[in-house]
Design a protein that fits this description.
- There is one protein chain.
- This protein is an alpha+beta fold and 575 residues long.
- The chain has a domain of 132 residues.
- 54% of the residues lie in helices and 8% in strands.
- The strands form 4 sheets. The protein has a 5-stranded mixed β-sheet with strand order 1-2-8-5-3, sandwiched between helices. A 3-stranded antiparallel β-sheet has the order 4-12-9. Strands 6-7 form a two-stranded antiparallel sheet.
- Strand 10 and strand 11 form a beta hairpin.
- Helix 9 packs antiparallel against helix 10, helix 9 packs parallel to helix 24 and helix 14 crosses helix 17.
- The protein is globular.
- The protein starts with a helix and ends with a strand.
- Bound molecules: protoporphyrin IX containing FE (HEM).
- The site of protoporphyrin IX containing FE has 21 residues, from helix 17, helix 18 and helix 24.
- It holds the Pfam family p450.
- It comes from Apiospora aurea.
Length: 575
């Protein structure tokens, strides 16, 4: 009997071993043929994830580790294994090719599901999560009024000046209370950036910066805060009370960042969304934004068709609502009814996206630029001298320059300083795409459905690549810039590299990718640049940024949604 049954268990064991071996093989890295990789990582179940996690723990920023690989392997295209059982991720590290992919190859390299998933749970209808097809382009066109120069000049300019002056006054009060000690200042920039974007989106002025200043003045007069004995210790300042919506947006930004950093983003996101705090904040932001949309709809629905057509849009919510109402007029529908659920959601999500994308980015850039001022006292002094020459009223009469003169006076060294800050801050150090079709890059075949990390940093020496391996458009772009690499090195902060010999500013000295390129280029670039300029000018004219004590001056970065400094302390002398 037993002899008869022996072959069956043997076959079962054989099958089990085969299935196990197959399963193990499936979870171990399976390299894409022909693309260089780290051989040791390919032998490990966790692939490159272990090294990446270690680098993240050690430095707070995984991007150096990711883009170092191409240099180690001497290849502009390489692959990494970032999660067991998943396809490899391809890394592309060549400025010309990255710019070409972003500008001309969106049908081959489009929005990655990783990015879509992270945002889709919160903003399913916003343009950011859409693939670069007709629906995306139509939505961008619908909203372009909000980011266009006429709207920015008419609506955003006076508001950004107001909040930038508010920050100057807050710094002045904090400096008095700190009495020579260094103090943390990220919240100043963060809350002011939020109040501006919120005002641009809803047309409702914020008072958090003014309130914070009043609180600091009260604490100084009442001597209610005991400062540390040492002049080199961090001063105690009253905490800025963030508007509720600002805390909500920061909370959602950290949710998105956590999911983007996770090895298994959908699981992380699912877990975060189950948390009661998440649900509570979500309900809060839904009712706030919907309230603004309904108030704008009710107001605009009372206008005559002519008034509606002639109306100057004075906030993003008015833009969204007016354009929906104009579409109703064209279809011969009544203006009175509430919006359909879909129309309401589309306006809602785009407004929320502007709040998310247009808030922390600007505060992070300003924080880096303040660090560059402190780390480079000679360049700070030079910037101040050119600004004082451009705006003599600040020195002779103590008057602040007007917003128009700040924005529209040509000041080459200021433009170079801004450009170099944007380059060196490298706030979005990794752009993510997915191949939408089987394709190739620099002679390497990349199959459909592979996640691709693009390095937009203008600061690493390009590897030698035969021109014949490039696409036609990439070959054609060779002379678009004076250089792709500064022989004096790009690891220094040097605004001068953007100046011609005659001292004029030359934006074509090197490529610029900090706001990405092509059809998916940053939507808020103009607003961000104007706001950066106004804040930088007013800060440098009003304060000397002294060096902060050792231990508070680290230039190390951390990766949240953006690459931001680990430490942001200032020590100021008012001017
Ligand atoms: C210093 C400030 C800023 C920097 C450095 C920055 C950078 C970027 C970058 C690099 C991208 C491209 C991401 C990609 O290609 O995958 C991007 C996209 C985007 N930015 Fe900005 N940004 C800034 C400010 C703003 C502001 C103020 C707004 C809103 C008013 C904004 C709205 C957006 C949106 C909506 C997208 C997504 C575009 C798409 O649909 O693909 N950004 N930004």
């Amino acid at each position: 009997m037993s002899v008869m049954f022996e072959p069956l268990p043997l076959a079962a064991v054989g099958l089990l071993v085969f299935v196990l071996l197959y399963a193990v093989r499936r979870v171990y890295p399976r390299p894409l043929p022909g693309i260089p990789y780290n051989a040791a990582s390919a032998r490990s179940l966790w692939g490159d994830a272990t090294g990446l996690m270690e680098a993240f723990k050690r430095t707070g920023d995984p991007n150096k580790y990711i883009f170092k690989q191409g240099r180690d392997l001497d290849s502009p295209v390489s692959q990494m294994f970032l999660a067991p059982g998943s396809k490899p991720t391809v890394i592309i590290d060549d400025v010309r090719e990255v710019k070409d992919i972003l500008s001309h190859r969106t049908h081959e390299f489009d929005r990655a599901p990783r990015t879509q998933d992270a945002y889709r749970a919160l903003l399913p209808h916003c343009s950011l999560v859409k693939l670069t097809g007709p629906a995306f382009k139509e939505q961008r066109k619908f909203w372009e009024g909000v980011t266009g120069i006429p709207f920015l000049r008419r609506v955003a300019e006076p508001k950004m000046y107001h909040y930038a002056l508010g920050v100057v006054e807050l710094f002045r009060a904090q400096t008095e209370l700190a009495a020579g000690r260094p103090f943390a200042c990220f919240d100043n920039f963060d809350v002011a950036a939020f109040e501006l974007i919120c005002d641009v989106v809803f047309g409702t002025p914020g008072s958090a910066i003014e309130d914070a200043r009043a609180e600091v003045v009260r604490a100084t007069r009442g001597k209610t805060i005991q400062q540390p004995a040492s002049i080199d210790s961090v001063a105690e300042l009253p905490t800025i009370q963030k508007p509720e919506m600002c805390s909500d947006v920061s909370f959602f930004i950290s949710t998105i960042a956590k999911s983007l950093k996770s090895i298994f983003p959908p699981w992380t996101l699912w877990y975060l969304r189950q948390q009661p705090l998440h649900k509570q904040r979500l309900a809060q932001k839904e009712s706030t934004i919907d309230g603004h949309i309904e108030a704008a709809r009710a107001r605009l629905a009372r206008l005559s068709p002519e008034q509606l057509k002639d109306l100057d849009e004075d906030s993003a919510v008015v833009t969204g609502v007016r354009r929906q109402l104009l579409a109703r007029l064209r279809r011969g529908e009544s203006l009175d009814a509430r919006f359909s659920k879909l129309a309401q959601k589309e306006i809602h999500d785009e407004l929320f996206m502007i709040l998310v994308a247009g808030h922390e980015t600007k505060a992070v850039l300003l924080s880096w630029s303040v660090k560059f001022l402190m780390a480079n006292p000679n360049k700070q002094e030079k910037l101040r001298q050119v600004l004082q020459a451009a705006f003599p009223e600040r020195v002779s009469k103590g008057e602040q320059p007007s917003v128009k003169s700040i924005l529209y006076t040509s000041i080459p060294y200021l433009e170079a300083f801004m450009e170099e800050s944007i380059r060196y801050a490298n706030t979005s150090p990794r752009l993510v795409r997915m191949t939408a079709t089987d394709t190739q890059c620099l002679g390497y075949r990349i199959p459909k459905g592979v996640t691709v990390f693009l390095n937009p940093y203008i600061g690493t020496k390009p590897l030698d690549i035969p021109e014949g391996l490039r696409t036609d458009t990439s070959r054609g772009s060779k002379d678009n810039f004076e250089s792709y690499w500064d022989p004096s090195g790009m690891d220094e902060f040097a605004p001068e590299r953007w100046l011609n010999e005659d001292g004029s500013f030359n934006p074509r000295k090197f490529p610029r990718l900090a706001f990405s390129a092509g059809p998916r280029m940053c939507y808020g670039r103009n607003l961000a640049l104007m706001e950066f300029r106004v804040n930088l000018v007013l800060l440098v004219l009003n304060f000397k940024f002294e060096q902060v004590p050792k231990g508070l001056d680290s230039m190390e970065s951390q990766q949240r949604l953006f690459r931001m400094p680990q430490q942001i302390y200032v020590r100021l002398t008012p001017l």
